Structures are given as C-alpha cells and as structure tokens.
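Usage example:
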Amino acid sequence: MNDEAIDLETLRRGARLAGFSWSDAELEEIRPMVIAGLRMLHSLEAAPVGDVEPTTHYRTV
Amino acid sequence: MTDLARMIAAKAVSPVEVVRAHLDRIAALDGDLHAYITVDGDAALAAARAAEAELMAGRPVGPLHGVPYALKDLYDTAGVRTTGGSRILGERVPQADATVVRRLAEAGAIVLGKLNMVEFAYGPEGLNPHYGHARNPWDRAVHRMAGGSSSGSGVAVAAGLAPGSLGSDTGGSIRIPSSLCGITGLKPTYGRVSRAGVLPLAWSMDHVGPMTRSAADCALMLRAIAGYDAADASTSVLPVPDYGAALTGDLKGLRVGLLRGFFLEGAAPEVRASVETAARVLAAAGAVVDDVTLDQMQHVAGASLAIVGSEALAYHAERLRTRAGEFDPDVARRLRAGAYVTGVHYVRAQQARALVRDEVDRALARRDVLLAPSTPVAAPPVDARQIELGDGQSDIRTALVRFNRPFNLSGHPSCSVPCGFTAAGLPVGMQFVGRPFDEATVLRAADGWQRLTDFHVRHPVLG
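Running the assembly step on the lines above writes:
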C-alpha cells in the first residue's frame, strides 16, 4: 500500500474495524505516524523468516 | 547501596539517619528535578525506626536491612497510590505490593517513594506533562532529557535522591535513563524477575530491574528480586545465583564482542570514541576483544513497532475508548497508531524476533558478553526533535531506543554503565549484553570495568 492510499477514509475504516470511533481530527493527527509505521511493517516482508516459527517471548527455562 | 548495607549492619550508621538524609535532599532538590511523583516520608521513617530497633535487639537481618530505595510509579505498593505516570490512575491505591516490592521488603529495604515516568511507560524521552518533566541533573543551564521511560529512577539515583531504584524496560527504559543520567542499570533476562503487580506496557517485551550507582549495587538488588514467581508465568525456575560472588574484578580471558555496524557506526562521534576507548581499556586488562556485526538489526524497528503497538493498545483499549482526553496527547497518538497493525504484521514480527534472538545467541556462542553503546547520543535538550548520528539524521525517539530494542526482542540480559563524558560534561553509557540467565557474567564485566574507571562515582553538582 502506497502512502497516498492511507487517506482519511482508510484510517476511519481501520479504526472502525479495530472497534474505535475516533474523530477526523484525531485521525489526521496520527496519519503521518501510521504511514511511517506501515512502511516499517511492510519492510518486515523482506526479513528472511522462511518457515521460522514465531516466538512470543524468550524460551523460559 | 552495598556500602550503606554494610555500614548499617555494622551499626556505623543508623537507618533513620540515612532515610532522613535522603528525605531532606528530596525536599531540597526535587521541586526542580521532578524525580518523584509521591514521597512516602512518614512510612519510610517509621520503617527506618523499626529497622533500627531490630538491629539494636540483635535480631537477624536481611541483606538490604535499613537501606532505602525508590521505585518507578508502575510498581504496585499496598496503600500507596500507583499512577503509572498518568492522571487516569492518579488516585489508584493498590491493595497489595508487587512481587519484587515484597521481596525487597523481605530483604529489609525501605521505600522512599514512587518515581516519575513517561505516562504508562510509552516513550523514551522521559517527559511527563502531568507530573512535570524529570530534569537531567547533569546540566543546570539547559533542561535536558533524563531519558525514559524510567526518568525519575535515573534522576533520583544520579542526583542522590535515592541510593538505588527500580525501573522497567520495554525498549530501553532502564538503559536509556541510565545512560543519559550516568548511572548503572540492569535489564535482566526475560523471565528472570517477576512482573507481577507491575503495570504492563507490552507483556512480551517488558522487563523489570535495578537502577543504581554501580554494578555491585545492581547485583545486590537483583539477588533480592530474582527468581520464580507463581504469579508471573514467564518467570524461570532456574536457581538464583549469588551475583555478588561473581564480582571478582578479574577480566582476564573475558571474551568481549564489540558490536560494530548498526551499533558503533550508528553512534555520534563522541559516543563511539568513548566505547572504542573502553574496549581498549578492557583489552589492556586482559579481556579478549573482537569485532562483531549483526545482520538482522534492520528488522528490529518494524518488529518492535508491531509487537509493542498492538500489545499496548490491547491493554489500554478500554481507557482509550472512555477516557481518551485524560491521556498525554502524545501517548494517545502512539496508542491509536497501534490500531493499524494487523495480525499478519504481528506474527511476522514474532518471526523476525526469532531471527534476532538466534543471531544474538550465535554471537554469544563463542563470547561471554557483547559490548555496544547504550544510546547513540548523550542527553538531548527536552525540545530537540532531530539529531545527527554516525550514519545520518534521526528523530530523537528512534535514536534513543535504537541500541536497546534488539535485546528486548531477544530477551538477553544487558547492563548499561557509564563509560565517559562528552566535551559538554554529559555522561555517556555503554551496555554489556550476555547469554540468557547469565546476569552473573554481565555483572562481572560491568563491575570489572568499574574497578578500572571512575565514571560511575562522579556526581552532578547540585545546589
């Protein structure tokens, strides 16, 4: 998803799906942060994870 | 703390005198420093009088008998408000102590009060609009960041308002303020110390640990708080060693991997120079130092964002729906951004986390500790937003967490120690990272370093 695709309507839909009803002003405030964050999250696709099993915390002994 | 414990046990000094001296210093300086949210002076003095009576009666006492400390205001304390640095929990008074608070009481330690922090521990700069920004005590002219989120813990110890403290560390929140305030802070292995009764930021990344003036003090506190706790399923059943016995001062043969690339080359020039000098000092003392580069670090920021963003939002979701206006607006924005992390992002992040953990394990397979800067810069001014690093411009927040988050993801223990001062007189920190549950070797390295240098015994000049 490119940066332009993260418009106000996309943010509204995302918030609704997550169970929140935030005002347009609140959504505009976080738009740059969401765009930067999604860029970082998409870069995770380049991680050579293969079939690495996800961990949730350090293996407890 | 080690000196105070010894002097109190030998009846060379009274716990009442020690507690009163700290309360006087808090009264004199904290109006400006904002290290404390709540000072529990009457209870501390009552506990000190009881500790003195026990000593005079010749009863057996614990290793921290009569020694005062303070704790970040996210540890539950029975009968004393625990705010999490928030207005929302401003009047919250827990019924019971957190496990580690109870264990420190059993060891004889006395609580002076609850320390300032970033609201709900969500931020590395150390700012808090509700209780005042904790002030870094090393610069009286410029208001500089104390580092966070355990800002009050760093300031209180650096300024002599407590001999030791407890912090918590989800992305560097023990090591960042330790570095910026010139003190020693230990993030133990994930699972080494119970988090029961500690307000969470992100369950799978949260660690709790001591912030003190020396590695020896960290060892003393860690021994008291570490170990299995039925109330925290993440805690390990591994026995707790005598960390103090590991502090031999002997660095001969200690295998130290100096973390280059993402770490050293990413630091500002003065920080890099301090850590490189430290590596040479360690080598001259008999340590075997070699260079290490980790290749998976580019995934750390995204993985941390996905994990902390979604776990923190999950914890605060209901408050964000009903009391959003009472949050620090900056914290509210960060929490809201977590809503756009998908389930796939979260799982991918946990996969990347496994890669990071395995890479750090491999680097430690033939080494005892890794060495890296704790923060890439010394304390920035509170209004700074961007900073120049060794490999380009960065926003302050990203810069402060950069060298810390890898070991929150991986769970390895890490201890930040002072390793120099900038030309402007600000402390510089570096961290020793060790194998899982091998805090003894991490502390041995940190203590060995501190026996060779005096950075950790220098104090800011205060009024």
